[in-house]
Amino acid sequence: MLLGVNIDHVATLRNARGGVEPSVFDAAKICETLNVSGITTHLREDRRHIKDEDVFLIKEKISTRLNLEMAMTEEMKRIALELKPAACCIVPEKRQEVTTEGGLDVAGQVKKAVEFVKPLNDAGIVVSMFIDPDKDQIDATLEAKAPFIELHTGAYSNEFGTDLEEEEFQKLKMAAIYAQKYGLKVNAGHGLDYKNVHRMHEIPNIIELNIGHSIISRAVFVGLEKAIIEMKELIK
Ligand code: PXP
């Protein structure tokens, strides 16, 4: 399994004082030096953490694959087509949420999804749909012709260590197997940490995990380099 590091929360900390420290670019450089498979940034509509200049600078100067998380809006499509990241992960977005709360409802907006994904596919950007482990959402992703899903692991992560862990885990596993059967490639992420990540090995053929909050939190105490190395060890 590969590790994509989400560095949004370096920007959260930077923006707390409105200055330039800690540098998102320096965080991206560390990711590049450590050969992570991807650098993930969520350019939110309200720009609460990552800003446009961050993603353009990373794309220009860093060789690691850039995975741009973004909402299904015209503004974001325009930015993605200009930026040309290696990958785009389409996520739902609500202004009031603290973080991405649930998967994207692709099934409820298939036509919009088809029209949204096509120009990104045509531009050579690898699109994934961030969805809950649900067959209808997988079927809709197939219709939308996105080659990847990213399974939302938030419910599993929240229930880790409780009686509901197994149920949530099995949903992820079944969804991954179902999606792969129909030719989709599968990533996963959200809420994964140093304690719960190991079960992702029990799901066949997951390509990449996108992990942010736990790595950046650990980095506060041990440094970003060590935090990433430790996570790489757990998922390799
Ligand atoms: N994947 C997606 C699509 C996300 O929106 C996020 C959060 O921005 C993550 C992965 C990473 O989640 P976390 O920060 O909880 O590791």
Report what the structure shows.
- With 236 residues, the chain is α/β, with parallel strands linked by helices.
- The protein has one domain (2-235): Aldolase class I (TIM Barrel).
- Helix content is 46%, strand content 17%.
- An 8-stranded parallel beta barrel has the order 1-2-3-4-5-6-7-8, surrounded by 8 helices.
- Strand 5, helix 6 and strand 6 (148-152) form a beta-alpha-beta unit.
- Helix 5 (110-122) packs across helix 6.
- The longest helix is centred in the last third of the chain and has 17 residues, at 165-181.
- The model has no long low-confidence stretch (mean pLDDT 96).
- Bound molecules: pyridoxine-5'-phosphate.
- Pyridoxine-5'-phosphate binds at residues 6, 8, 42, 69, 89, 91, 99-100, 130, 150, 189-192, 210-214.
Strands, helices and their partners?
Elements: E1 2-6, H1 8-17, H2 24-33, E2 38-42, H3 52-61, E3 66-70, H4 74-83, E4 87-90, H5 110-122, E5 126-131, H6 135-144, E6 148-152, H7 154-159, H8 165-181, E7 185-189, E8 206-211, H9 213-222, H10 224-235
Parallel strand pairs: 1-2, 1-8, 2-3, 3-4, 4-5, 5-6, 6-7, 7-8
The chain binds pyridoxine-5'-phosphate.
Identify the notable features of this structure and list them briefly:
binds pyridoxine-5'-phosphate; 46% helix; single chain; 17% strand; 236 residues; 8-stranded parallel β-barrel; alpha/beta; 10 helices; TIM Barrel
The CATH superfamily name is: Aldolase class I
Report how far the terminal alpha carbons are from each other: 6 Å
- Low-confidence runs of at least 5 consecutive residues: none
What would the average pLDDT be, to the nearest integer?
96
Radius of gyration: 17 Å
Order of helices and strands: EHHEHEHEHEHEHHEEHH
Number of strands: 8
Q: Percent of residues in beta strands? A: 15-25%
Bound molecules: pyridoxine-5'-phosphate
Number of helices: 10
Structural class: alpha/beta
The helix content is 40-55%
